[in-house]
Amino acid sequence: MNDWLTTLYDAHVDVAGYPLLWREIIGNGFGFASALGGLRRRVWAWPVGIIGNVILFTVFFGVALSVDDGRHPLYGQAFRQIFFIITSVYGWWMWNRARAGK
What percentage of the chain reaches a pLDDT higher than 70? Predict the structure, then answer.
């Protein structure tokens, strides 16, 4: 990977001695925004949620790829994000069909 890409990928903030990845913060922010959009029945909530799930997938699967740092692989969490992405794509598709009157 390029140096700037690696720096961006590994960017974190220390919270109580734990390195919290910016990708995790941003992914959860997208998830929160999607939940608010869903409560307000806004169609943009679907793609925003999908973006959040993709970002969180990189967090959880990234841990699986770097098991040498003492953390346990999070395959279940990573593949749960894939489930959420598939479910969101289906929900977005059904939303658009309902709005089109089909």
Answer: 91
The whole model's pTM is what?
0.84
Task: Tell me how far apart the alpha carbons of residues 27 and 21 are, in angstroms, rounded to a whole number.
Answer: 10
What's the CA gap between 12 and 20, in Å, rounded?
5
Phi and psi angles of residue 80, each rounded to the nearest 5 degrees, phi first: -65, -35
Please tell me the distance from the alpha carbon of residue 21 to that of residue 74, in angstroms, as a whole number: 15
Spell out the alpha helix ranges (H) of 1-102.
Answer: 3-10, 22-39, 45-65, 75-100
Asked if residue 36 lies in contact with residue 47, where contact means CB atoms within 8 angstroms, the answer is no
